[in-house]
């Protein structure tokens, strides 16, 4: 049997099972891992902020209520996805990321203790191995989430970003944790994850100049999920992640709606 035929058979069989059994979400807890997009949404100091403008809101001449708005924003801000093409030429743009790569079992590596002593903390390979000693090997096909504890500061830019200033000069004052390039390199060589996310504005720490973790992960077509909310409401493992971005053709990033099913 050809591989594609086999996959279609499995998919159709799975759909039939779900249709017969039904999907009872009342028996699952859904955790929204997405910040709302509004005037307080956190963006990089050089990026255009989210703006919602009213086209119409009120009673029409025909007597019924109607509302319509338009929005503008940079790709990278609030809860969003970094597509691999963001830092790796020729790799997947937003609409090219396979959906199966954005749905999968999740694990949370908690480094809140480490970040309490350093806003510039970089998550290490040792942190990942320590998690594995307590919880078992990070499974193949996992969506890996890194909890630094910085979600508690969102959307206060001074505490969350390190500065409330805007513009190119403000970039030098960014301070928040991220993933060390050596840990990113270890993950790509020794584990097989679908995607990686965290509760800070960037997978690289605030003082990064070369964005090496971006480069390393994206070269392997591993997207990053940034400004992820409510990681403190998740267990360390045993849940499903669904992370669906706006389907922007050719996009280097996009607003993201991400949830966890427990």
Give a verbal description of the structure:
- Helix 6 links the parallel strand 9 and strand 10 (224-226).
- The chain has a single domain, classed as 3-Layer(bba) Sandwich (Glucose Oxidase, domain 1), CATH 3.50.30.
- The radius of gyration is 20 Å and the shape is globular.
- Strands 4-10-9-7-5-11-12 form a 7-stranded mixed barrel. Strands 2-3 form a two-stranded antiparallel ribbon. It has a two-stranded parallel sheet with strand order 6-8.
- Residues 4-11 have low confidence and may be disordered.
- The longest helix is centred in the first third of the chain and has 19 residues, at 3-21.
- The two termini are 35 Å apart.
- With 262 residues, the chain is α/β, with parallel strands linked by helices.
- Helix 5 packs parallel to helix 6 (212-219).
- The protein contains 6 helices and 12 strands.
- The chain has helices at residues 3-21, 112-115, 125-135, 157-160, 181-190, 212-219; strands spanning 30-32, 51-59, 65-72, 80-82, 103-110, 122-123, 142-147, 178-179, 193-198, 224-226, 237-245, 253-261.
Task: Give the gist of this structure.
With 262 residues, the protein is α/β, with parallel strands linked by helices.
What descriptive keywords fit this protein?
single chain, 262 residues, alpha/beta, Glucose Oxidase, domain 1, 7-stranded mixed β-barrel, two-stranded antiparallel ribbon
Domain module count? 1
Q: Beta-strand level of the residues, as a percent range?
A: 25-35%
Structural class: alpha/beta
- Which value, in Å, is the CA radius of gyration? 20 Å
């Amino acid at each position: 049997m050809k591989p594609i035929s086999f996959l279609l058979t499995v998919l159709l069989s799975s759909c039939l099972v779900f249709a017969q059994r039904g999907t009872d979400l009342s028996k699952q807890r859904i955790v929204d891992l997405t910040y709302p997009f509004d005037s307080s949404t956190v963006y990089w100091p050089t990026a255009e902020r989210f703006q919602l403008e009213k086209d119409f809101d009120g009673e029409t001449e025909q007597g019924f209520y109607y509302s319509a708005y338009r929005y503008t924003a940079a790709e990278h801000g609030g809860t969003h996805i970094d597509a691999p093409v963001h830092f790796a030429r020729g790799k997947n743009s937003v609409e090219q990321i396979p959906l199966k790569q954005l749905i999968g079992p999740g694990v949370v590596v908690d480094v809140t203790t480490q970040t309490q002593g350093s806003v510039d903390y970089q998550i290490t390979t040792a942190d990942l191995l320590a998690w594995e000693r307590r919880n078992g090997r990070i499974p193949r096909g996992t969506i890996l989430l890194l909890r630094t504890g910085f979600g508690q500061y969102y959307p206060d830019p001074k505490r969350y970003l390190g500065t409330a200033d805007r513009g190119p000069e403000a970039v030098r004052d960014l301070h928040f944790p991220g993933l060390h390039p050596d840990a990113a390199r270890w993950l790509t060589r020794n584990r097989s994850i679908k995607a990686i996310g965290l509760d800070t504005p960037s997978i690289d720490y605030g003082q990064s100049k070369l964005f090496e973790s971006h480069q390393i992960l994206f070269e392997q077509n591993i997207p990053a999920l940034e400004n992820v909310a409510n990681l403190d409401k998740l267990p360390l493992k045993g849940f499903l992640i669904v992370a669906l971005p706006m389907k922007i053709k050719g996009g280097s990033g996009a607003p993201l709606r991400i949830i966890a099913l427990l």
